[in-house]
Amino acid sequence: MGQVSRLLLVIGGGIAAYKCLELIRRGRERGLAFRCVMTAAAGQFVTPLSVASLAGDKVYGELFSLTDEAEMGHIRLSREADLVVVAPATADLMAKMAGGLADDLASTLLLATDKPVLIAPAMNPMMWNHAATRRNVERLRADGIRFVGPNPGDMACGEVGAGRMAEPAEILAAIEGLLAGGDRPLRGRRALMTSGPTREAIDPVRYLTNHSSGKQGHAIAAALAAAGAEVTLVTGPVDLADPPGVRAVRVESALDMRRACEAALPVDVAVFAAAVADWRPDGVALQKIKKGHDAAPVLQLVENPDILREVANHPTARPRLVVGFAAETEHVEAHARAKLARKGCDWILANDVGPGTGTFGGDSNRLLLIRRDGQAEAWPQTSKAEAARRLVAEIARELAHG
Length: 402
Known about the structure:
By secondary structure, the protein is an alpha/beta fold. It has helices at residues 19-29, 48-55, 66-71, 74-79, 91-99, 105-112, 125-129, 131-142, 168-180, 215-226, 254-264, 307-312, 332-343, 384-400; strands at residues 5-11, 32-38, 59-60, 83-89, 117-121, 146-147, 151-154, 160-164, 190-195, 200-201, 207-208, 230-235, 246-250, 269-272, 279-281, 301-303, 321-328, 347-352, 364-365, 368-371, 376-378, 382-383.
């Protein structure tokens, strides 16, 4: 990365604090330098000695330490970093940041810094979805604070939902994207990204949908934004936080998604990872369909619009690069090549989503990139975040030479 980038890492008091040890270790391997601040609660989960050993620097924690203030005043501490990272960002720390409170060293540094701030929230799902936390998130975003995560999954408390701190690799990707600054390869480019499933209503209670979690689409949106693109993310219903730096448009049905994609044009690149339902009921019942003693009701289905094909063949606003996804359960490459020709897009990313693969809802993926000229490149099994970064690097190279 050239000269060493210095990070001020604020470690909050949550069980996810243990992930910071891996973040520091992997970050130093990439040439990052860490100066760490721990809240009093953080010391209940990781020791200052562990953090200091990995960071190769002392750990700060006391606002009124005469020694620390003499050697490194808290104002100077808040200004010497290139980027401030808060991980885990607890509900308490986020509330202090949103309210401008400064009653300990961590919150004082966050109020005094003049550097960009990236936070990785981590908390119980109920806390994350609480109205107070949602207000704080909106306030922090408006103040220019960048977010990475949280992710959905099993929590240490035994509950399931959004609230898990982003993994160290995801946080590092966000850090490197922010540190890249003016060198970001997609700066000035506009991108459209679709993600997640669609829901096609049967009646006010029931709907048709699929197993897409949106993890891959959201990861690509985050990687596009980290590379400097202005990203519109059109997402179906998912249990995921909005990626940092994107404009998210939430939709339900395929018709909703079509309208949102049309409104987002023109763009330089469009990536369609959403699993759009192929069919929808021909008419939605106004009241819940009741179970009776007769035969089950018969659903009459009609075909949904083909959003990928429409954008790839748009008469006036076709993106420079159109990328589709092919989720297949058999004959993956053959079906993907046929889809590439049928849709008129430039690239197709194919993956196997058959039983036992763990692709739907999982954190890893194995992709096959097929280009319009027939070239195919098989990518190894990797995290969805890493696959997203690789795709965005390919997109940047393609647009640079276009």
